[in-house]
Queue: 3 jobs
Job 1
Amino acid sequence: MSLTAYNNVPVPSFMYGTAWKKEATTQLVQSAVNAGFTAIDTANQLIHYQEALAGDALLALAQQGIARDRLFLQTKFTPTNGQDHRTPYDASADLTTQVIQSFDSSLAHLHTDYLDSYVLHGPYQQQGLGVADREVWAAIEGLYRSGRTKMIGISNVTAEQLTQLCVEATVKPMVVQNRCYAARGWDKEVREACRAHGIIYQGFSLLTANQGIFAEPAIRAIAQRLGAGLAQVVFRFAMQIGMLPLTGTTNPQHMKEDLQAEQLILTDEDMQVIETIGM
Ligand SMILES: NC(=O)c1ccc[n+]([C@@H]2O[C@H](COP(=O)([O-])OP(=O)(O)OC[C@H]3O[C@@H](n4cnc5c(N)ncnc54)[C@H](OP(=O)(O)O)[C@@H]3O)[C@@H](O)[C@H]2O)c1
């Protein structure tokens, strides 16, 4: 299964996230691809990700016969406010140079000459977009126009920021990646803005951000009726409502279970129950 954004590039319907895997990143990326994931999310940000170790996994997978073009690789430009002293660019350089240096470093880490998706990790300010966001987005648009990335996107945005970006940008984002809280209607406002602009919404921390819903009898009853796990019900709900979920599991059995969520079918009533469950 795949999704498409407004520029018609196919994106796998489930993504494996590599945050917080530390030294286990190489092994876990290999396990995830061997379990059936074809999309990998990382970031050039050593505080939370080991992009180079994800790259080591890609080398091992290539030796195993899994070629680069069978995988969808997504990584991020993380501004200085999300980095420690180990910035993958000259932090004193202008922002356009920072983006280009970070991008080149990501390509080197991932042993590739193109990305499938390149994402701005987050705007510089919590509300609205400022001069820095505009400069960084223009640099990311330049990478897209050069053909070195097939899609571009933004993460950790409000609906207002996304709408503003879509109005101001020369190239609108094709993906948005946000933490998805059930208590906010599963980020309903941002999902609706994505739908209006033909943008793929990627939801992360679907499980970790919503621990409270797992005690709810209504979702437990749905899982029981389907003979499925609670995580599977949440991932299937995400897919069926039109988003692309990320999973951050470190357990090979959970990798398989998460992928099997795609086979479940939730009724309209199930969907309504889950859509409003934490509100
Ligand atoms: N853009 C951003 O700012 C940003 C921020 C955070 C995350 N992300 C991305 O989103 C990815 C996922 O985030 P996340 O790790 O918070 O996601 P998550 O999938 O909600 O959380 C992972 C947790 O869920 C558990 N889990 C997964 N599948 C399970 C299953 N079938 N049964 C039971 N437990 C299960 C895992 O435990 P086990 O390990 O035991 O399976 C782990 O504790 C990250 O790796 C990263 O790529 C992006």
Note: The first strand starts at residue 2 and ends at 4.
Job 2
Amino acid sequence: MRGRIAFPFAHRPVGRDARAKVPMRPLAPRIAPAAVRVPDPRYTQIEIPFPSGRPEIFVHEGARQSLERRLTQAALKPVVLSITDNRRSMLAFSSKGGVVYARLHHMFLDAPASVQESLIRFVARGDREASDIVGRYIDHNGHRIRASRPFLRPLVTDGRAHDLLAIFETLNDKYFGGTVDALITWGKAGRPRTAQRRSVKLGSYSAVERLIRIHPVLDQAWVPRYFVTFIVYHEMLHHVIPADMARGRRLLHPPAFVEREALFRDYDRALAWERAHIRRMLRA
Ligand SMILES: [Zn+2]
């Protein structure tokens, strides 16, 4: 029977991921983990670099029904709401026999109230301003759209000196309540990319692939673990905090990002280490 699923349990992950079902911690990311969980592909990364088949999504049934009810009230006719994990179509509507069939990406289930209200106005009345708000929300949540590009190289986390998966899991547990479902790998060997030899790109995050790459120059015994951990933490923040638009410019490190970054336990130490050793890393 619909509507009878107990609220806090409707989204509980299953299987191997079940061990991540710790309650929300104070430092959980901006994105509410309550609405939906996509199975964590990290657990299959070594044997199956590119998970085959369609990932299942776990929809928070209570949130779905509540949104369906509000859409029905606003549209003045029955709305049947399906939640998708589509790559391209974020929202779609069709009408048949007086019933509206709405298909929405799961990002809308835990959207802020103002975005949900705009979505409802857009569906019920085709409101132009509401459509802009919805569009911006989709833009800012691009990182939640399932990776659409296959991984060309297998993911490697076990380095000679540092184990990225262990670092990632510790950070995920400590700072993100176990909710970060990005992938991680050592990047390709080669010189660290530099901008006029002043900065090194030691890590990167690709939202399309949902993948963190860490430069292999860090995989050396003389590079302390807390520094590698800091770089991984920074890239995990990119997964959790989308870039912001400020006066037409994309702000990769918005104020919320900078604040969260400073919460890292070894923040000052890591920055000092980077300053002291950046030249040696460039020569490596
Ligand atoms: Zn960054």
Note: The chain has seven helices and twelve strands.
Job 3
Amino acid sequence: MAWDVRPTTNLEEFVDAVGAISHYFGSERDLERAERFAKVLPLERMHGAFDGDRIVGGAGAFPFQLTVPGGTVACGGVTVVGVLPTHRRRGVLTAMMRAQLEDIRDRGEPIAALWASEEVIYRRFGYGLASYVGEIELASEYSGLRQAPESGASARLITLEEAKALVPPVYDRVRAVTPGMFERTKEWWELRNLADPPERRQGGGVKNALLVELEGEPVGYALYRFHMKFEQGAAAGHVAVIEALADGPVATRELWRVLLDMDWKAKLQADLLPIDHPLQHQLSYPRRMRMRIGDGLWVRLVDVGAALSARAHGGDGPVVLEVADSFLPENAGRWRLAGGTAERTEDDPDLALDVGELGSTYLGGFTFAELVRAGVVRELKEGGAARADAVFLTAAPKPWCPEIF
Ligand SMILES: CC(C)(COP(=O)(O)OP(=O)(O)OC[C@H]1O[C@@H](n2cnc3c(N)ncnc32)[C@H](O)[C@@H]1OP(=O)(O)O)[C@@H](O)C(=O)NCCC(=O)NCCS
């Protein structure tokens, strides 16, 4: 069956299209909440799938600017994807993904990115795993740092209201150099990061904001909650770090010193951390971090030529990639990367790969050599993977997205 998929045009349609995923969250239909959400997700960026006049599925795309190696790229930030249980496995998602990717391409956004609820869903639509995140649980008795406190560092608690002015500049400095991070608007900060509705506290206390300064200048911040608990007279609760970002090594160390030193916790928990987190080198007992790695962003090159040209190239090439793309066949073919740009070519390819594997390498999270070793990229000329890696590898840190959208 061909489903009628189109952008929502009014709040009623918007709330019903978002309602497909809200069903699984167990949320009530709420026009006021939808109105707030529409401040960050414009109505025309929310697709609904219609069965007659009823909406049975939805898929949205935030208009993001995403940091990639060497700059930022317009990106469809795919979100609130859902199909009602009454209409599963009848091609509704497939129809929505097609309409959405075509819309993203027509808007001139060369890439799309998302967090996947299940890792099996999006590869068929051309997405590739592009970054990891780490989750840690650090017992208080092992939370000491190797280096002494910095004399010019100080920390203070600020209100969420004060955070609106003090925190975004720090985020922006880190974002500018970290592939995988996206620009947050004022509305995004207010609605998402610095809001604290009781229903999102997950058994914890209020959201706290902490600012770290070096010589009086804000250089790091953390948002965190106490999950207070005592057992047999001893602290058994934890501090949950929601987001902790700092600009530079000293700022990072002093920010985490305050978090790790807190009383009334048996452990500190943090997820959505970069997997090359400096703490691994700053802690006295790094093994005790017990970092568990999971998938982060999935990236889809929607317009392969534009996407490849938009990202920095570490070497001049040339290298020729034979790209397969069954879902958006206009991307398929040979692409020659040379002198910082990508163009179609008839030259013999160095590597053959699916567009999803290109998504995996796009932010610098994985190398072509790794993917050849995994048997998911084919090396057609000797040294092809090394040549492609020389073009793709830059000095950027590992890609990291600190927030699930
Ligand atoms: C995941 C979800 C959106 C899939 O929607 P759907 O309309 O059933 O998907 P489609 O019918 O278009 O399926 C397309 C293909 O993907 C497969 N697929 C889709 N979701 C899958 C899943 N969770 N596990 C395994 N396979 C899946 C289908 O079997 C189908 O394969 P086929 O083409 O070989 O037959 C829907 O089940 C849902 O809303 N789940 C709960 C919410 C959720 O996880 N949303 C995603 C948020 S990131």
Note: The first helix runs from residue 11 to 25.
